[in-house]
Amino acid sequence: MWRLALRISLTLLLLYPLSLALLDGYGLADRAQPADAIVVLGSRVYPGGEPGPSLMRRAEHAAALYAQGLAPLIVCTGGQGDPSVPSEAAVACGLIAAQGVPAATLLLEDQSHSTEENALYTAALLTPRGARRVIVVSDSFHLYRAQLLFRRAGLVPYPSPAGPRLLWVERYFRGTRELAALGWYWGKTALGLPMTDFPERISSARRPLLQWPAETPP
């Protein structure tokens, strides 16, 4: 019995760094190409509406992709983690607008609270417009899971990593968290569970895209 436990432990010990390396390597490859929209995945916003470094990287990268002419729209995603703080989507749109991107091209998806919901809400908003091909902008460690979720939501994702390569310590900890999230995703898939824990909210996403600055939905 102890030999079996030792073999399992050694196998897991070998698979763990290999999985991290594969996850890291996938995310570092930029697969951006002409698409219908650029989708900026939300990230932390500090009190006072100050964007975290991850959201700043993603917004800057999305603006650069738009400047290359790769897509006519930018969809900023992410809801409010705290009611007193602006939504991640609103802050991202503000950052991108400050870089000279026309306001008419910036669209809000400000209801999601997870990567799963980023994908589902974005699909619900873009599919009625005939838009399916999306450049998904996030940090490198996040992109493998993100493209799985966007593909499952019916979109065609082109992952594109934002900003400079992170230090190995940060990539290690963030990659570990991503491996746990991937395990959760595959577990839910195997059990036939929905991607999001809040499926009743998805139907409310079938409203017109909100243009930046935010408009009141009809």
* Approximate shape: globular
State the helicity in percent bands: 40-55%
Say how many strands there are: 8
The domain tally reads 1
Secondary structure class reads: alpha/beta
Main sheet: strand order: 7-6-1-4-5-8
Q: In whole angstroms, how far apart are the ends?
A: 64 Å
Structure description:
There is one protein chain. The chain has 218 residues and is α/β, with parallel strands linked by helices. The protein has one domain (30-105, 118-156, 170-211). The protein is 47% helix and 14% strand. The chain has 7 helices and 8 strands. The protein has helices spanning 2-28, 53-67, 88-97, 115-126, 143-152, 168-191, 199-202; strands spanning 37-40, 45-46, 50-51, 74-77, 106-109, 133-138, 156-161, 210-211. The protein has a 6-stranded mixed beta sheet, sandwiched between helices. It has a two-stranded antiparallel ribbon with strand order 2-3. Helix 5 links the parallel strand 6 (133-138) and strand 7 (156-161). Helix 1 (2-28) crosses helix 6 (168-191), helix 2 crosses helix 3 (88-97) and helix 4 (115-126) crosses helix 5 (143-152). The chain is globular. 41% of the residues are buried.
Short structural summary:
Mean pLDDT is 80; it is low at 200-209.
Write the layout of secondary structure elements.
Blueprint: H1 2-28, E1 37-40, E2 45-46, E3 50-51, H2 53-67, E4 74-77, H3 88-97, E5 106-109, H4 115-126, E6 133-138, H5 143-152, E7 156-161, H6 168-191, H7 199-202, E8 210-211
Parallel strand pairs: 1-4, 1-6, 4-5, 6-7
Antiparallel strand pairs: 2-3, 5-8
Helix pairs in contact: 1-6, 2-3, 4-5
